[in-house]
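Protein in question passed on here:
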Amino acid sequence: MIEVTGLSKRYGTYLAVRDVSFHIEKGEVIGFLGPNGAGKSTIMNILTGYLSLTQGKVTIDGFDIMEYPEDAKRRIGYLPEIPPLYPDMKVREYLNFIYDLKKVKFPKKPHIDEILKLVKIDHVQNRLIKNLSKGYRQRVGFAQALIGNPDVLILDEPTVGLDPKQIIEIRNLIARLGKNHTIILSSHILSEIQAVCKRVIIINKGQIIADDTAENLSEKLSGDQSVIVRAVCTEKEMAEALSSIRGVKAVTSLGRKEEGSFDFLVEPEDGVDIRAEVAERVASRGKKLLSLTGNRLSLEQIFLRLTEAADNEEVKRLLGTVQEADPAPESDGQDTVRQEEEHSAEEPAKAEQEEEQA
């Protein structure tokens, strides 16, 4: 559905995005992550045809975004961080306007009625947009992205300004839409990404540094299959019982956490899954197992560890990957790297400012 190959983008002599490639299948919900200024918004704006690329190729459902822009854009619904709203229009009037701009073929009234109900703004459809709360304006922006039932949805911070109940509703909506749409979701709320996305792409300093499921990244970074056990028991007896399980390398008591219960960190030998045996051992001793959780990194921890790495070589070391060096853009080879290192702080700042404005 989405194919990005060798994508690079320059602002003057500053290389903001370098040789980015990824593929997204139909029906995938992808989390697109990166610190501010990493090139994330630039890539999303290129995918939507809002910005031109310097080098590489982007296709949407087989249509090159540069050669066949209308065909490609017809398949995209885009919600930028600041929704493109006209405050002096009423909600329905605005959606009618977007419908006409997109030259949608569906019957107008039934199509817009369906979208109004889907994002739960049908009861404010006759109000001026400028009189709506920030959360409702965000919903109107979401609605305009759905006009025309596009195959691809690109959502940049879709839950900004929403209250906790609304966030859950939008999260559930994204999950439902993901069954029939390809979705790229960018958000700084990483728990939101982890809840709805099957795969995450992390970009830093203009390059992709990780592309995998959160579970696989956690496993690669944590490097073990250890579990934390909480059981109602005596500390010494349970530590000995867990230590005698075949495949267990070490057991460490983490102390009393609740009245009458203790936590234990159980570390297995390499490649051994001990979860079932641990649960059986606790039960066989007649003790109550209160919880059994994997000692894995959260998406927030993964993101920080990877983006705070000194360079991409350290990222590869952390993930245990062995790859060939990333090819330099054809235009100037190693000179590009040298230029990036020699740039003053003013060039990156200018690029980041342009990216944010875009």
